[in-house]
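Closing statement on the adenosine-5'-triphosphate sub-project.
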Amino acid sequence: MTTIAQAKTSYQAHFSQVAKELGQDWKGWVRRLRETAISRFGEMGFPTLRDEEWKYTNVALILDTPFQPAPYDVRSLRSDMPAWVSLGSFEGSEMVFVNSHYSPEFSSLGQLPRGVEVGSLAAAVTAEARWVESHLARYACYQERAFVALNTALMQDGAFVYVPEGKVLEGPIHLLFISAAGKGATVSHPRILIVIGKGAQASIIESYTGRQDEVYFTNAVTEIVIGENAVVEHYKLQRESERAFHMATLEAHVERGGNFLSHSVSLGGALTRNEINAILDGEGCECALNGLYIASGEQHIDNHTRIDHVKPHGTSRELYKGILDGRSRGVFNGKIYVHKTAEKSDAKQTNNNLLLSRDALIDTKPQLEIYNNDVKCSHGSTIGRLDQDSIFYLRSRGIGVEAARNLLTYAFASDVINRIKVGPMREQLDQLLTAKFHGGS
Amino acid sequence: MLEIKNLHAKVAGAEILRGIDLAVNTGEVHAIMGPNGSGKSTLAHVLSGRESYEVTAGEVIFEKKNLLEMRPEERAREGVFLAFQYPVEIPGVSTTYFLKAALNAVRKHRGLEEVDAMDFLALVKEKMKLVEMDQGLLNRPINEGFSGGEKKRNEIFQMAVLDPKLAILDETDSGLDIDALRIVATGVNALRSKERAMIVITHYQRLLSYIVPDYVHVLFDGRIVKSGDKRLALELEEKGYAWIEEQLQKTQPVGF
Ligand SMILES: Nc1ncnc2c1ncn2[C@@H]1O[C@H](COP(=O)(O)OP(=O)(O)OP(=O)(O)O)[C@@H](O)[C@H]1O
Ligand SMILES: [Mg+2]
């Protein structure tokens, strides 16, 4: 048993280790950023169940395992990198990261329009890429969030994507994060910075995976800057090892007329916490957050989302669906915050949950905070079980009871899946789900 | 083909079927009529294996097998088909996908090869004609947003595809306009055969003038209280059920 205080000390020790290893590799401004972040972490410590935002998710479970900083080790992967980690062939670029480090040998960037930059974040910092210093750590709040502070202090690499004004990417960019724990339990802190210029368009897939029985901890932070009238589709596919821990914070900053579409699919992990926050910081922004979480056994999946309507005429739509089996537990907390300055905001939030077993549990909490009267906001959440009339109808046609249940479970998720616009991603997810609800086809 | 003996069944603690006896032979069409709440749909569901209905006594033999021991899907595969009074809407499951899965489950049970997509489509096209169903409905989720009439056509269409030995039609005529009634009834008639038996539950003689039954039974308070030929339906249409009730009271002064 590690106490929370011990865990805190050990993560602070990681910092000294990282600082020594990196030496002069990262620029002075990053060093200062790290130092601020680690000292802020020292002040905050880890959240506990007494924190309103962490009421249902006990991070002590993560802190119990003494994780060591993950080595950058592709050798262990090379021989048996399973085919399933890739989305297969599709138009676009795939960048592979092992324990958060960019691995050019596994990546294929394909054809990208002139001026588009994709690659290692560490390399972009070293090369003094223009946009890194002005955006990195400006959105994800290391001042207030312990895991963001840890990531900021301990990040070693991750992805940098920059699409200049007016450029439209044809295919998606796939950022594939693989954890290879090796012998001991390891932690990595992938960091992603995505900057999309005025009127540009891109779709980006972030996926996380690892070997099925390995114990590791992924603590990721993604910042996305969406310029005026830019359109960004972001997909997150979490299929970590079932013994892994996954913490992820995504901060999207949307400027005037920008459009942010987010899909978050969580399948793996022993304990997962996703925070997705979008700030609609200009007039007429559009934002859609879609999510699907599927848990069984003892899995715990927590989705926290927050949409800030800061300026007028913003539209947000949110649909999260959960399927919980076994003794799993789900948490959905969706906050919509309409600022005084955001008249004519239009927000709609829906959270639907399907419980497949008696012992599965969901805590769902929609939160609307509205400080302007001239707005349209609604929310609804449901918790249900498979419909007995539907099961009987299917069985009365000769379909077996298991197949009937699987078919209905899949059907419950289908509207979220159908919103995924990247074909190969949708097909892959289809396969994963069909396999999960085996016999469902 | 089907023999129901002294069947008793309970729903939510209340005894709804109170001793049903009925024998149906291959090729026959039996009509069951009776007032609201008399237990017609309950009988249909008990025959299809709905688990919320508890059989407390009696037996049902179907093709020499004990029907009550089978799960609903097994009964369907053995050839029992229920056209629902209230077909269920199932969002997210396409009608085509569902029906192909059902057909292949039934075929597998009968030792036939699974149909491929091409053959399935051909079969489906042919059977849709039977009830003049719009092919667009196939791509939609099962019954979702279907009109009352479309749902009923869909039931008969599914019956045509699955080719059951015993079809139980529970108020297939309700919700149909006059033209649709004629079309659906013509479809059902086309499915009449020496190999197939049908139980047609209805409130109206109108349907039975299209689908002419060999026998008519009156279900009253969970029992079949009167049986006859097609003339019984006409008589009921004319006189209502009060007449039967009176007769019953004369013969059975106690117990009702
Ligand atoms: N699931 C149930 N729970 C409680 N009561 C039920 C249930 N299903 C049926 N019943 C009751 O059983 C009785 C018979 O119902 P049933 O649906 O079999 O009648 P019916 O003859 O088909 O009537 P209708 O002509 O109106 O369709 C009714 O009193 C009904 O309320
Ligand atoms: Mg009825």
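The mean pLDDT of chain B is 92. With this model delivered, the sub-project is considered complete and its resources will be redirected to Aim 3.
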